[in-house]
Design goal:
Two copies of one chain form a homodimer. Chain A is of the alpha/beta class. Helix content of chain A is 36%, strand content 23%. In chain A, the strands form two sheets. In chain A, strands 7, 8, 9, 10, 11, 12, 13, 14, 15 and 16 form a ten-stranded mixed β-sheet that branches. The first copy, chain A, is elongated, with a radius of gyration of 24 Å.
Chain lengths: 428, 428
């Protein structure tokens, strides 16, 4: 039998504790499956004596994760600290320089410093695995990087921030305002310390950047993602979208166009009865489309102790078996940057506006749309008591530029009481 | 760079041709991803000169797949012939004895002779990979065996025969009888040469036996699966189920009980709005539940050239990287047979009956149910012109035995014009 596979775990929050629990509970089974004993040499965390419900007495303790990363008695360094720089990044670098493989759940670090770390890993003959970094318990990195390797991927998309999906679902189901649903999510502890990471689409954007790199063989490029948060979504939009047969989701889409790569993380309308439309609460979903496989949909819990620890343990067992793979599926020298191509792909749009109730306004609105070559698929005007008439329009396929110009013109010409709301409708 | 990875492909039907196409089209990319050239040494098929749309001129030709399996210039033997015995099994055995890894899409052979082949593979230090054997393009073997390795699996279930799901969907959508939908599927070439493999649940049962083995660490045991086909499903049942908020699916379920392992492949009712209920046409879906990950759902095309070839190429690349794994996730000596435990798990049932329209019959029916401790959740009686009254009942949780006994008693006492129809309602 191969010598034991020795782990050093840095960060014993929810996920780190979950990993300890699985490794301890299922040590014998995992050893039979990987034909190797899996053994925790040492751990490191901020508070040594905090009650985590698991005993640390069997492991060495390191005050400093950087010291843990270079210990000669570990084969893999598991970084569960978080943060894009500082101690977590330094510890990962130390581990790689010391010739140790790295497992991390740190999507932000990979999305921003991924190439630098992948280069360091290759230089030292090491490997970085990060199943837990995207979509929690869903084995999506494995599916995309290994399971669908025989495909030219055309589109990857998904709902990858459970907190945002929880807020949007609560608004719809409980008829809450955005502020009320946000407050509820906050009270339940669902939000990051900086809530903008969630609601601004940043956390989900990090995940999308990683999936894009694997799917399209390019370096992760978080900065070129068109990020729009969910704080612009109102209960009026959720109701109006429902009335037209749609739901609003914070949807990340990465897609090849004739001009380059389009990466978006923004509130979108999807058909209410589609797989994405039916996704409620904190659940995540990733849709992968390739030339051979057509469409694969993966769904599961996007966060939480058990699911995230499950993903980390999958990486541990792969590395225990000696299964190495380039960080983003290809050696760094083979990753080709793809030009950022935004708003190239035509789509239908949803427009909600409050028309000033004067004779001829609707004619003027439809005129503006027509001037920008936007044709109308469906339109509804609702009965109203005050001086503005709520109007919903679903357009035929057009471009984001045309929509933006039309919205500006309607606003400048004071046809609506406030700027019209426009959301993309994603084809599924 | 490692020496090239050399393939021998036996069977050039739809799937084999699809594999040739991907390997030829994406040779350079796959080589960069696996850090190794992937090279087809030789092929074998029934008709050498059949037009397959791809040229075979670059590969050696073997008339006999068994000769191909032992060629010194192949590293892996890819069996895409089909059939549980005869030449396909002999060729696989020859390859393993010759020290070559094997890739196969042959679910029947693995479900029936899996242990024998796994033992032969281990004895010769070889590996059998079979991602294409279950659920076509969905990387479910990889997800279950590798991605969810850190879980104690509690239930695996799925819709894994696209033809059956196509027939059931067409009955519902086009208001067709079973016979009409079957004839349509047949005319479209969707059925196996022996249609009972599809509609009898045998093909899907083979897949379930393989998933059970990986999920529960036992030898595959196809013979203990409770198989019921879809030919007993009538358009009346589909309509009645829809009226109660359900759809009928040929659902495979494998689940640990206190007494052992329960494996069923049978028509079941699932909530119409659930992920399984929404599954239409030939698409497959597998649901995996584990202690850490909670629930993962995978969805995608269950058959066809591209999707199945995509799965085979995934196995090719894993083996090109030297990634070996025991056939059913554990060495054969660690697989423990689990006792067959049928009808142990309580469930709700759907009952449809034609009551003989005589005074007091409904009282007698509810009396029979009550005598067997079956309580009623919902009941509907429909208006009727003739001498029988259609009645639908959804029960609270009960056992299959109780249902079977009640149905027998109703039939013997001539309370219904024909034996009541009973389908299990699966909890999701």
């Amino acid at each position: 039998m191969t010598p034991p596979f020795r782990l050093g775990i840095a960060g014993l929050g929810t996920v780190g504790t979950g990993v300890l629990e699985i490794i301890q509970q299922d040590a014998a089974l995992l050893s039979r499956k990987t034909c190797r004993d899996i053994y925790i040499s040492a751990v490191s965390a901020r508070a040594r004596h905090k009650d985590r419900g698991v005993s640390l007495s069997n492991f060495d303790w390191e005050e400093n994760p950087i010291d843990l990363a270079s210990r000669p008695d570990i084969d893999v360094f598991i970084e569960l600290i978080g943060g894009t720089k500082g101690v977590s990044k330094e510890a990962v670098e130390t581990a790689l320089i010391s010739g140790k493989d790295v497992i991390t759940a740190n999507k932000a670090m990979l999305a921003i410093h991924g190439i630098e770390l992948a280069e360091l890993a290759e230089k030292n003959g090491c490997c970085i695995r990060y199943e837990a970094a995207v979509a929690g318990g869903i084995p999506v990195i494995k599916a995309l990087q290994e399971g669908l390797i025989g495909n030219r991927i055309s589109r990857v998309m998904g709902v990858m921030n459970g907190t945002c999906n929880y807020i949007l679902t609560r608004m719809e189901k409980a008829n809450m305002s955005y502020k009320e649903a946000f407050a509820e999510a906050d009270a339940l502890g669902f939000l990051e310390a900086d809530p903008n990471l969630d609601i601004g689409g940043i956390d989900a954007g990090h995940k999308l950047a990683i999936l894009s790199a694997i799917a399209f063989g390019c370096p992760p490029n978080f900065n070129t993602i068109n990020l729009e948060g969910i704080d612009q979504v109102t209960i009026e939009d959720i109701k109006a979208a429902a009335d037209m047969g749609f739901k609003i989701k914070l949807l990340g889409v990465s897609q090849k166009t004739t001009r380059g790569l389009e990466q978006r993380m923004q509130p979108c309308l999807v058909p209410a009865l589609s797989s994405l439309g039916q996704l409620e609460g904190g659940t995540n979903m990733v849709v992968i489309e390739g030339d051979s496989v057509e469409q694969i949909i993966l769904r599961g819990p996007g966060a939480g102790k058990g699911p995230t620890a499950s993903a980390v343990v999958s990486d541990i067992c792969d590395l225990a078996r000696g299964w190495k793979i380039p960080t983003f599926g290809l050696p760094v020298k083979n990753l080709s940057p793809i030009e950022n191509s935004l708003s190239d792909l035509p789509a239908s749009y949803y427009l909600r506006m409050l028309l000033l109730d004067e004779s001829g306004t609707l004619a003027k609105i439809t005129g503006v749309l027509s001037d920008h070559s936007i044709s109308i698929d469906r339109m509804r005007q609702y009965s109203h008591d005050d001086k503005t008439a709520p109007v919903l329009i679903v357009t035929h396929k057009t471009t984001r530029n045309a929509i933006d110009e039309a919205v500006t013109e309607m606003t400048e010409n004071k046809l609506t009481s406030q700027p019209p709301v426009a959301f993309r409708i994603e084809d599924l």
